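INFO  loader      accepted 1 record
INFO  loader      residues=401
INFO  predictor   begin
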Amino acid sequence: MGQLNNYVKNLLDADPNLTNLWLKGEISNFKHHNSGHMYFTLKDETGSVRCVMFRSRSSKLRFRPEDGMQILANGYVSVYTQGGQYQFYVETLEPHGYGSLHAAFEQLKEKLEREGLFRDENKQAIPVLPRKIGIVTSISGAALRDIITVIRRRFPRVELVLAPASVQGAEAPEEIVRALDRLNRYGEVDVIIVGRGGGSLEELWAFNTEPVARAIHASRIPVISAVGHETDFTIADIVADRRAPTPSAAAEIAVPNLIDLQAELAHVYQRLVRALAKKIQAERQRLAYLGERKVFQSPQSLFQDHQQKVDLLTKDLQKAMEKIFTDRKNHVAQLSARLDAYSPLKVLGRGYAVCRREDGTVIRQADAVKVGQQLEVLLARGMLYCRVEDLKEELSWQKKN
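INFO  predictor   done
INFO  writer      dumping tokens
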């Protein structure tokens, strides 16, 4: 079998009609293997052929092949001897109808749009009066000169910080990403201008790459994209916080015109002076009007009625206090009379006496003492010291029934 396959392979490889072929058709059964090789079927209304594109070729593609895509494939026909099948070995691949760069542009645009990188709510505002402006561009390009010239003319006091990067070629995307990262880590610039002058789609391609788009979106500092001329449009323009049609226009967006700003400030100052003078005049008229009112002509009239009211209230308060004092005095006299009536001294004054032990304990019945015990007898005037000679516990009129 192997000899047969090799024989057929040699026949096909030797046929000049089967080399440098261009095939047009629709991709189906597309598979991008982990090895980097691409396998798919190319078909049209008349038939189909199996195709393979090895990594050495597929890695150079600007776009991503997909099922259903119409393409133009260039390559040659040969036999895969181990499987015994012939297939088309693709060396170059182009989308049919427009170039690979346009296809890659549309594919990346669609992908980033699905992820929300173009949404307006993700855009940062460009500061009105930046103190420092970062610039990402080629140090030798005309774009840098244009940006510096415009900024120095419009607002010479602003400070410029350059993060140089290639803006064309295979190394450009990585250098642009690093430059944006350096400015973000530096952290002292208020806005970043990233871009270059005009050129072909191929020359501007660094600004249509995914790493650059994601670096612009991830920037904590607002980014103005200024790539090419007014008619050029890149992925960087869409994802940036603000798009400028040219580098010079980006400089005009980044800083105000100092002369216009000074004129505007002078205009505002004059308006403020006129408004303040008008306000002062109005307040003077109001003050003059208030000065003619009775309360300012005769200020004492403002509180005369209140003084009279205070006098009346003071008089009423004095009467109320006198009445309260008299009522309290009479009440105290009544209580004193009642206390006096219950006073033990009154009882003693009527001829009664209080008998008590030497420790002051009052004796209320005879059996509470003993014969011979010393007692004190308290009189209305003076006190007797007595000894008990005899006692009778109960008198006849004290007996209980």
